[in-house]
Amino acid sequence: MSHAIQDRPVTAAPRRGSLAHARLPRWTPAAIAVGSIAGGIGIGAAAGWHSKVQWGLLAALLFVLVTFALTTKVEGSRQAKDRVATSLIWVSFVLAVVPLLSLAWVTISKGMDVLDGYFLTHSMNGVLDAEAGGGVYHALLGTIEQVGIATLIAAPIGLLTAVYLVEYGGGKLAQAVTFFVDVMTGIPSIVAGLFILATWNLMLGFGPSGFAGAMALAILMMPVVVRSTEEMLKLVPNELREASLALGIPKWRTILKVVLPTAIGGITTGVMLAVARITGETAPVLLLVFGTKLINPNPFEGAQSSLPLYVYEQYAVGTDAAVARAWAAALVLIAFVMILNLVARGIARWKAPKTGR
Length: 357
Prior knowledge:
Elements: H1 2-7, H2 28-47, H3 52-74, H4 77-111, H5 117-121, H6 137-168, H7 172-185, H8 189-203, H9 210-234, H10 238-246, H11 251-262, H12 264-279, H13 283-288, H14 307-317, H15 320-351
């Protein structure tokens, strides 16, 4: 047998290069991007285009076209289609990020001129809108109270509604609730403000207050919380529910101890998205809160202010000092939303179920 094995002809191993084909270097996309940017700037300047947006769009178009042409010549049409799809994803990402970075840069550069400790701890009491000085404390306090009350109203109702739709609903009532939630998602903020104005202020006779504005904000917040929480609950595997029920645990306890902790990260993110939406609303506050230059810590009585309303009022004045205060208040508003998101992510990570051993 050993002789037979030795007498067998030895076949050559397949060459690895037999299935290989030409490939572009790894640095090619970066080189194409640099060349496309230079080409976009050069063509735009030669054509007399003064808008940098036009230069950027032209550079993005050149990047996709050059990538497709070069990849088709070197690697073939099949690989070229794959690279073009990847290029379109990168271009879309850049087109989405650039305006956000530009907005943040402009807001920071113009808002830092006025933003300091004095601006954050003083109101506009006794300061004329055309004069320099004053602060945003009364508006910041009003925003915190109004958004906090709206969240306390909308988050539990939205969470319980989503739990009903996913865990219990299935009939005509669930369909009706889903329909009205979808309709409420697209209603303008002014409609919510007019509804509270007609019921709370005109019919019941209450005056302007932060609580009235918070109720209008809660109407805008509720459908966002319902839809986002509903989608997160649907992502929880049914096996977890079945395993809990198989141990004899009641359904309500399964929802409370298994389903909600599993989806807490997505639920928290959805609530923060809803908070971010209502934080920048001006129309309901203008109708129901009225605005004031004084510090009013009581959200249930008397007019209050808010950061969006403060920005609108100061920018409408038009003087250099007022516009500078408007930019500073806008920066405070952005920072307020960012801090809320960071806190929410920390809570979600802290409360999320541990998967490691």
